[in-house]
Description:
The structure is a homodimer. Chain A is about 15% helix and about 45% strand. By secondary structure, chain A is mostly beta strands. Chain A has a single domain, classed as Electron Transport, Fmn-binding Protein, Chain A (Pnp Oxidase, Chain A). In chain A, strands 1, 2, 3, 4, 5, 6, 9 and 10 form an 8-stranded antiparallel β-sheet that branches. In chain A, strands 7-8 form a two-stranded antiparallel ribbon. A two-stranded antiparallel ribbon of chain A has the order 11-12. The termini of chain A are far apart. At the A-B interface, strand 4, strand 5, helix 2, helix 4 and strand 12 of A face strand 4, strand 5, helix 2, helix 4 and strand 12 of B.
Amino acid sequence: MTSNVAPVPLEKATRLLNHGPTVLVSARHAGEDNVMAAAWACALDYTPPKLTVVLDKMTRTRPLVEGSGIFAIQVPTAAQMQLTFDVGHRSLHDDADKLANCGVKLFGIDGHDLPFVSGCSAWLACKLIPEKHNQQIYDLFIGEIVGAWADTRAFENGHWKFETADPAWRSLHYVAGGQFYATGESLVAPSK
Amino acid sequence: MTSNVAPVPLEKATRLLNHGPTVLVSARHAGEDNVMAAAWACALDYTPPKLTVVLDKMTRTRPLVEGSGIFAIQVPTAAQMQLTFDVGHRSLHDDADKLANCGVKLFGIDGHDLPFVSGCSAWLACKLIPEKHNQQIYDLFIGEIVGAWADTRAFENGHWKFETADPAWRSLHYVAGGQFYATGESLVAPSK
């Protein structure tokens, strides 16, 4: 863990996802690590914080989540656009060196046996809330967020700092065909 | 419906949500219309297209969705930031003229008995897929997208046009405390 990675209070954890970024999902089971991209991840509750993520049956990450009961969700940066696209379009099924070939470097956080992706702006450690019907019928997984961290260069004191941070820290919002939008300008609604 | 509102093929419907915008949820039941904001909405499947949205038990829109079994999800624009904030922070419970006081104008689309919000960039007509357990335990609602439309000034031929459209058309990504980020610059990952 680098010196810029700081814990985020769990009551603020959903703020890391509230702007709707594309995320990286990672998991570890039986000696295997994998990382995939997911545009379909979303906050679900504040207390305790929860999120949803869609994991297709074709993915290699899904059985790691089902096997271990835990997973990490992380928010990649504009600087990681190619990495994000590549982990979403290559499979461990076809490329045993997928992570290395995609430029993924992993790191650990004490107390969580999960492969966290270096260079992201935020990380969420999640415990799977087993919901067989949702998982089988909709590929929909629910996780309770049990740990949250952010790089203080991008998120600090409960707030994203995109207005002042280097644009390389902005989040990614995937559309299709290799195209993303970066998070843009800050707009503030005056209370009436 | 204005002349700029064009149907979007259902197989492209999830593209209207893929970048993770904050949305407006609207519903009609027993002569009552309401509109609320939701940052927690997400695509769920391509075929048939589906989405999830979190509707708190405190909202007045939720019983309209439960009562009618249908709802609309629409993508508000940067120009609608104040409207989006206001419909998310006022309730019909307290203000019978909420919609007028928030500046909401509604319009109809043939074949769908739903109150669509004028001025948005995209609209999705949804049929509730009843999942009592998800609704009761998680406030999580699943809808099948049965109709999709976009304003051609913002989305055309299956693609958002934020790069060339007026910035007032950009989507909103809510954070907290009245702060949003607009959708930002386009980034394209070269295929390797």
